[in-house]
Amino acid sequence: MKAVVMNAVGGPEVLLYQDAADPVIRNPTEILVRLKAAGVNPLDTKLRSKGTFYPDKLPTILGCDGAGVVSAVGSAVQRFKVEDAVYFCNGGIGATPGTYAQYAVVDEAFVAHKPVTLDFSAAAAVPLALITAWESLHERGKIRKGQSVLIHAGAGGVGHLAVQLAKQAGAWVCTTVGSKAKAEFVRGLGADEAIQYHDKDFTQAVLDWSEGDGVELALDTVGGDTFTKTFPAVRFYGDLITLLQPGPTTDWTVARQRNLRITYELMLTPMYFGLHEHQRRQAEILENCARLFDTGKLRVHVERCYPLAEAAQAHRDLAQGVTGKLVLAID
Predict the structure, then answer these.
(1) Alpha-carbon torsion 109, 115, 120, 121, what sign?
(2) What is the pLDDT of residues 297-320, one digit of tens each?
(3) Could you read off the pLDDT of 22-50 as tens digits, one per residue?
(4) CA-CA distance, 216 to 209, in Å (whole number)?
(5) Please, which of 168, 250, 267, 324 could form a disulfide with 301 given CB 3.0 to 4.6 Å?
(6) In this structure, are strands 234-242 and 215-220 parallel, antiparallel, or unpaired?
(7) Using an 8 Å Cβ cutoff, are 161 and 300 in contact?
(8) pLDDT tens digits for 74-115?
(9) Alpha helices of the chain — where are they, by DSSP H?
């Protein structure tokens, strides 16, 4: 098969479009997927530039998100048949080949039926970002109807899905964005307030929006200074979920004084540690949210779609910042 192979750690130029070994079903519950598209995530660029979770297993194929058609099934597979359209988040962190390829082998427990209303490119843009947003808001944050919620980078891959999920839950949502165009974009998704952080201090803007109290729940998708500047924007005894690792010099004073509950979200944990029950739960999230897509209650924005051979360019463009997601189309 053709694949984009990462032969070394480095810049986008280490991603080489070449022949690779066809994956083979080895366990009776696995399925072979003929991939039609692969999502491109910030995670992929980090693994490429800093090294995968398994640095001794190069070369490797990146890509966690995939969508395609079942090409073959193991002898014990029950949920899928040949020609079923599916989407999933699996592989691509260094241990097993990812989705920057024409084929992938995945255990059926970690796969969901593709939303009927999404084409393969749109479906491939969904899994990692959607699972992250869902777990952050529903499982970490226990979001409730009527809550005030802050979502950073609401026009980003995780952010634009999180804004919609929060509105689906009945929350009041404000979000930070980097431009007027992105502000209009997130308002179209249902955001009640869009804060252009280049033009104003988002902490004060959130306090003004929340009548001085701060929000009850905040989702930090950015990290760094954004994380600590969010502390005073969350009300006393509120919740702050972050997707990033706080730095060693983080000043926790304000968070402690306000009795904030700080929670981490890393949707890769089940895959990395082999927590199969949690991986099955993530596939259930995709199955359940497929109904939201198919009933028009949720949508995914794909800014650009590239041929598989242009994965390196997709990585370059992602580093410049995008609205929504980037996708690789696979012939």
Answers:
(1) negative
(2) 999 999 999 999 999 999 999 999
(3) 999 999 999 999 999 999 999 999 999 99
(4) 12
(5) 324
(6) parallel
(7) yes
(8) 999 999 999 999 999 999 999 999 999 999 999 999 999 999
(9) 42-50, 120-124, 127-134, 157-168, 180-188, 202-209, 225-230, 253-257, 269-273, 276-294, 311-319
